[in-house]
Amino acid sequence: MRPFTSLLLLLLLLLLRSAEPRRGPRSGAREKGTGGRVRGRGRAGVTRRQIQGCKEYMEAGEKYLDCQDRQLTTVMQDWPKDIHHLLLARNKIQILRDNMFSAFTQLKSLDLQQNDISMMEDGAFTGLSKLTTLLLQHNGLRTASEDVLLPLPRLTYLRLYDNPWSCLCSLDSLIRKLQLPSNRNLGNYAKCAEPHSLSGQKLKKINVDALCEADRRPGDKDGGRPKLPIKVKPEATSMCHTYMFPKPLLDCSHKGLDHVPSDLPSDIVKMDLSSNSIKHLRAKQFLLSKDLKLLNLSSNNLHHIDTAAFAGLLYLRELDLSNNSLHHFQYGVLEDLYFLRKLPLDNNPWICDYNIHYLMYWLKHHPGVAYSGLICTAPSEFKGWRVEDYIKTYNGDCPKDRQTGSVDTGQGGQGGSENDAQEEGGETGDRQGGRLPRPLQDRRPNKFEIIRLS
């Protein structure tokens, strides 16, 4: 029995060893599958990484997919289909193909600015029946027809500027649609780049009947020879970035601007003009931006602001003037800012003399405004003082000898009341041209405070 038992054990061992190599490859195959080498699963893994390269987030109950600056040449069909806002700015997309976005039926906004788009097929936006905002500025579009906009019945906001539009017969139907009175926010600021006779004219203003005339005589009147295209210097807004979501923002920071752009959009809520070289704010430069709530003018070496510079900014809530070269505000500069709540003034060389009084007077009568950075830098005796403290010193009591020696109450008295003395002192200061008196030491508590204005 023992030899028989031994033989059975040997057979069992051989069977076990022969079974192990078979299990090994199967196990290995499963491991490779989880690693992404199986065809179907491998593609899914790539898609997940691509989605992770974009930023998906929720705001105000709506879903955003931010795929800006990703070197993309097309959209990925494995992206979430329930997104409401798709941000594709600053990629490498060249052609918008038919049905390119048809899977994203919930889209309300599509940002395609600053790509290399040179052509749009007529069915590029098929399926986007809920789209209200389409941004196509800063691309290479030369022509398009009205048909490309037909799948967008709710479109109310369309940006097309900074494209080299060729204003010939092929653009006729699109321009006619843009010029309809009901489409007042479609295609604003877009201009013709060619032909030479129409160069620089806005699509919204151009005479449509002139398009085919220009097409029939491409050489204009120069002996039938076609003219070389003239490079049109881009306007200031073509240098800026426009973001419509979550709130309309015009980002013109670090663009080397030496003035406020003259063609500011009327529906911008936030405007960033920081880190430029704007030294002078002229009157009514923001008059059309009536919805503006935040204006950043920091780091501009700004040294002068005209009285009506902020005219029209009724709803402005935050004005950043920090890191500039302001010495004071002219009287009336802040009078249009009824709802201002935040006013950073840090790192400006404030001069504590008669001219600084208007700013403190306005702040005192607008206690809801949170401000910072009001520190005297000159003259030397007040350097480092808070402007509020300087104002208190300026309004100190006059010495007794000046009260008794120079005040005439009109009643034959020698001294007069304390109120009369302070009022007379104010008139004397005005007659002397508003010169700054030396800081006076309080001899008794003030009953009230007088703030003098120019």
From TrEMBL:
Signal peptide stretch: 1-21
Composition skew (Basic and acidic residues), residue ranges: 22-34, 440-454
Stretches the record annotates as Disordered: 22-46, 401-454
Keywords (A to Z) from UniProt: Leucine-rich repeat, Repeat, Signal
GO cellular component: plasma membrane
Lineage top rank: taxon: Eukaryota
Pfam family of the protein (one): LRR_8
Domain LRRCT, residue spans: 163-213, 348-399
The keyword Hydrolase is assigned to this record: no
The keyword Repeat appears for this protein: yes
Protein name, UniProt field: Leucine rich repeat containing 17
Species the sequence originates in: Cynoglossus semilaevis (Tongue sole)
